Write the structure tokens for this entry.
Amino acid sequence: MSYNIAIDGPAGAGKSTIAKKIAKQMNYIYVDTGAMYRAMALFLIRNGVTKEDTEKIEQVCKKADISIEYRDGEQIVLLNGENVNGLIRTEEVGNMASVSSANGKVREKLVQLQKELAKKADVVMDGRDIGTCVLPEADTKVYLTASSAVRAKRRFDELTQKGESCDLDKIEQDIIERDHRDMTREISPLKQAEDAVLVDSSDMTIDEVVEKIISLCK
Ligand code: CDP
């Protein structure tokens, strides 16, 4: 049986940074489910679908083939065969992903793929509905959060480092809006699973969070 670690939480809580480090230390595979929703969002944007157009989201998402590959331990998201890793980390794509991920057809497709990945290998999977929906039987479940101000600052630093110009207040606003959408949507809303351990990383370093989660697995 494979060992599965589920990490859920709001935008900018540090899930991907933490999950990557845990995967490296434990020699597990890191599955970034947000990247899959982002790839789908990119496909929708490219096809001229707007956030308001729910029906079109359903139609167009059928034409997207999303898959995952690992090269040198790094997750590569393939959108109809194209490596889109370099194109999905923008605010535009993130905001679209937050809207299109509320769509049942979009989720059905991606959750299926995520379940298969976790069956085959020891994984650390992060997202919004991993402990509640994708891997309800996960061996370790964590709900990772931090204050919206701290999360906005982290996202700001990440984008600035990549040379993307951005505004801290606007980012915090986006984060609050996105959390609200993720937490109140009808299908698989973001919430702490009953058996998940709550970790608030506002005043913790990355390594402290990593150590804490690894200790939960033991
Ligand atoms: O990087 P950030 O935490 O902002 O977002 P992400 O993990 O890349 O995910 C982008 C969007 O995809 C989120 O705002 C969610 O709406 C959606 N998502 C989801 O619905 N379910 C997941 N398992 C992962 C992401």
In short: Residues 11-12, 33-34, 37-38, 94, 97-98, 101, 127-129, 178, 182 surround cytidine-5'-diphosphate (CB under 6 Å). The longest strand covers residues 66-71. The chain has a mean pLDDT of 95. Residues 81 and 145 are 34 Å apart (CA to CA).
